[in-house]
Amino acid sequence: MAYETILVETKGKVGLITLNRPQALNALNGQLIGEVNTALDGFEKDAGIGCIVITGSEKAFAAGADIKEMQSRTFPETYLDDKFEPWDRIGQRRKPIIAAVAGFALGGGCELAMMCDFIIAADNAKFGQPEINLGVIPGAGGTQRLTKAVGKAKAMDLCLTGRLMSAQEAEHSGLVARIVPLADLMSETLKAAEAIASKSLPSVLMAKEAVNRAFEVTLNEGLRFERRIFSSLFATADQKEGMAAFAEKRKPDFKNA
Ligand code: CO8
């Protein structure tokens, strides 16, 4: 597949997607979101891939959905033609996805980063939901995922004023997992992705599913879910291998089985 708006590579067991519309600060148009989904489909099907990374440029992860593409849209077009469906699919992937964010992650760019499982930010990253400045509100999960990540006070502040938040503020408020110097963003993110990809894939997928469950159900339901899938992992050869390797003081050789 020839991509025009993204670059797609594999680095060992890691699938890397680089958003690549530099002339528009990686503004997320329909073509780009479609291409991201095509690349994700490929990585999800590829048994050799254990973790995915989405990144942008040093100046911008993505400065939002493409305003020029949206500007003349009418209400029926926006509501009836389900432009949200491909965005939703990014957030519903089974394999872990890390967002490596440098520069602007604004509007749909911040929402895309939040659809990933966690965010590693360069020290120059800036996050925000500035849609209010355009006479609209976040439309791809910003009011929901941001609120769950940083709480009501800061989500209201960001969504109502449209101000941007530094990487440091984003880390303190729980949006970002780690901050690294800009020059180390890709090496540190790939190191984290390789660490994930070296584990047993069934346990990685189930850990992701279980953490995400915490956002959907009560504590007791979540605990029941966790116990059921914890128990089910004892049916895998990788559980036997992982625990035998610990006892024998050697590295496990997981077979994703
Ligand atoms: N859409 C389209 N083009 C953009 C966008 C964007 N979001 N952001 C930047 N660009 C373009 C600029 O128009 C400019 O192009 P040109 O050179 O042709 O004029 C080029 O990128 C460079 O941008 P600037 O000259 O503005 O660069 P600066 O460094 O001066 O400023 C900013 C950088 C502050 C990031 C500025 O570009 C900006 O404010 N961008 C818009 C940020 C924004 O409002 N984002 C939210 C967009 S709305 C949204 O994301 C809703 C999501 C809903 C998803 C639901 C889908 C179904």
Q: What would the keywords be for this entry?
A:
12 helices; binds octanoyl-coenzyme A; EC 4.2.1.17; Enoyl-CoA_hyd/isom_CS; six-stranded mixed β-sheet; four-stranded mixed β-sheet; ClpP/crotonase-like_dom_sf; single chain; 2-enoyl-CoA Hydratase, Chain A, domain 1
Q: Specify the CATH class of the largest domain.
A: Alpha Beta
Helicity range: 40-55%
The number of domains is 2
Q: In the CATH hierarchy, what is the architecture of the largest domain at level 2?
A: Alpha-Beta Complex
Strands in their spatial order, largest beta sheet = 1-2-3-5-7-10
The SSE order reads: EEHEEHHHEEHEEHHEHEHHHH
Distance between the termini: 30 Å
- Radius of gyration, taken over Cα atoms and rounded to an integer in Å: 19 Å
CATH superfamily of the largest domain: 2-enoyl-CoA Hydratase, Chain A, domain 1
Function: Could possibly oxidize fatty acids using specific components.
GO molecular function, one term: enoyl-CoA hydratase activity
Enzyme class: lyase
Protein name: enoyl-CoA hydratase
Quick structural overview:
The chain is α/β, with parallel strands linked by helices and 257 residues long. 45% of the residues lie in helices and 16% in strands. The protein is built from twelve helices and ten strands.
Question: How does the SSE layout of this entry go?
Answer:
Blueprint: E1 6-11, E2 14-19, H1 30-45, E3 51-55, E4 60-62, H2 67-70, H3 75-80, H4 85-90, E5 97-101, E6 104-106, H5 108-115, E7 118-122, E8 126-128, H6 142-150, H7 152-161, E9 165-166, H8 167-172, E10 178-180, H9 185-197, H10 201-213, H11 219-232, H12 237-247
Parallel strand pairs: 2-3, 3-5, 4-6, 5-7, 6-8, 7-10
Antiparallel strand pairs: 1-2, 8-9
Helix pairs in contact: 6-7
The structure holds octanoyl-coenzyme A.
